[in-house]
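Page 42, continued from yesterday. The earlier attempt failed because a stray header line got pasted into the input along with the sequence. Redoing it now with the clean sequence only.
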Amino acid sequence: MGRFFNNKVFDGISKVTDVMLIGFYFLVCSLPIFTMGASATALYYATHKCIYKGRGYTTEFFHSFKENFKQSTLSWLVFIVLFAILTGDIYITRKFIPAESPLAAASIFFTVLLVFSIVWAIYHFAYIARFENGFKESFKISAIFMIANIQWSIVIIAVIIAMLYLVYRFLFLLLFAPGILSCGLHPILEKVFRKYMSAEDLAKEDEGNFY
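This time it went through. Structure tokens are written below.
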């Protein structure tokens, strides 16, 4: 009983350490900003393979970072432009449209679009981490996943808000937030992904033969 307990404690500590490490890798590799997409893809890949499947080491992060760098970086640049446009729209509508104007509600509309664009990005980079597909197809499929599973997309928003609140209350969590958030979102995203995987792919996945 004591050995079993000690093994469980050791495994728990090991998992927590791994979560902290992949979160740290994400922060460091995201510093140039334009590499954040590749870092997000690598973060989810390492979360899935190392944390949840228990295969390989946290350095799997760098395997994915290198393997998916081109597609993830180009995707991130697209999302940066989208975020910038929507943020500009929010600023303009709040700054220059009077509160009594019927158009004042446009800022809310653009805010909602921005939030769901962020959720789209989460689906997108997780999808790249898990499946091989073309640049345009990945955008299309990840958007379909987000819309077709709107209930889970809303749950993702709730998880992100909860994480932001915790970081606001306990600033030190900022260092661990990427890894914790990735682990928190993983079960939700995998529930969505598995709905669209073939029986053969699911069998390979359960045997540990995944990309």
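Notes: The radius of gyration is 19 Å.
Reminder to self: strip header lines before submitting.
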